[in-house]
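#data-curation
PF: Archiving a pair of folding outputs for the training set. Convention for this channel: one message per protein, sequence first, structure tokens after, nothing in between. First:
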Amino acid sequence: MADLPLRLGILASGRGSNFAAILDAIDAGRCPAEVAILVSDRPDAQALERAAAHAIPTAVVVPTDYPDREKYDLQVVERLRAAKVQLVALAGYMRIVTPAFLAAFPDRVINIHPALLPAFPGLHAQRQALEYGVKVSGCTVHFVDEGVDSGPIILQQAVEVCDDDTEESLSARILVEEHKLYPEAIRRIARGEVPLGGRPRRQEVA
């Protein structure tokens, strides 16, 4: 992108480990971006504490304060627009965004998923991989569309599935790779190597 750093809006519901990985990459100079705001749907989300420690503006938008998902999402959109966000990154955000949200940031919402999409979309991807008996799983950064984990793929990283893996052990190894892959995907978007609104080819980080 022409203007650097890229202004990020992060949506998170929990501990925010991918958010922390993005912050670490920015602080280390590996990712030409800045977090303009972190928005959470949960007032007790640990991600809010991480943001406060970095003096990053935050907002808590509680779903039960709104009559439906769309009105909730439009309130989140208002907070993101006020922060002049250019790219929205879902980082452990436990809600499915509505078409109204996607229309506000067309082709500018990304997510990370703990599987090699299109395999094992949705919840419990690591459990799905183990139940299916695959030998390789991994993680995927993708653009968000109106489907479930069905948007254009930006980057993927493979992770070997071991014979003695449990859902917890596989999840932990995939998470290590997520923390590398998500900042790298944002770096490529910020540098214009991945066009916003395009349909990038599937890639792997070596």
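PF: Second:
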Amino acid sequence: MEEKIEKKSTWKAGNVPIAVVLITLNEEHNLEGALDNLKGWAQEVFIVDSFSQDKTVDIALDHGVHIIQRKFRGFGDQWNYALNELPITAKWTMKLDPDERLSNEIKKNIFDAIQSDSYDGLEFNRRWWLMGTPLPIYDRVLRVWRTGKCEFSDVSVNEHPMVDGDVKLINGVMEHLDSPNLHHWIQKQNEYSSSEAVASYSKPELSVKPRLMGSILERRMWLKHHFYKIPGRYQLLFLYFFIYRGLWKAGKVGYHSAQLWTDVYRWKELKTLEMKITGRISKEIIHGPGKPDSRVKQAIK
């Protein structure tokens, strides 16, 4: 059962008729910057939190955003809940991850496109970062739509927004700052690759039908479906990131970034293989100490 949290203050609405929605879990290191980035621009901000243990909720309350907590059941499920159940009043809605930042250029271009009232969805380019370094690698993301015109693919990970209507590509770059350090990045990718492996082992349907000659998303699903059958795939994947996507331009950081992203694909394959061998889905192992158990005598010394 979701729980609404009372706000300490009120969000000061910006001049753009857009509701920005974030889903969070322990995003203390990102959330302050994300909300500061939206001040004076977004009409509304909503957060669906998956019971964070850090100061995520405190930061949200201090900024006066609308926040609720709900058990996480998968990314597609969480986003569809947000779109269907949050009291959004703005005419437009935007998906934003806590580690993403909007440039002034893209803020202006989103506002101009909304004012033109000619499209139902907006997409733009996102630049990747790693080790505190902007990388010469971009991906196109669909993040803005008319409220009520979008639903998400119902998948546990790698969810995709599906907009009913015309979508326009606008100029400007959104920065994907990702993790504050490699320890956090590796931990996050370890969890991500485990979720992907569970999905692969369980053999759910892909979010869209894979087609080699289809849309960008359909081609991505085709590659995802066939990747693990390709001989020498990890050497090719490294070259894809390092040469084709241009990570060589970032020097040492680019080289190691290509290695790390290649490793994530390898982790997924090995974890899926382990589940096939053992015949059971891997479960998360709890790390670190917890609270004292009242049923057990506690040592004084």
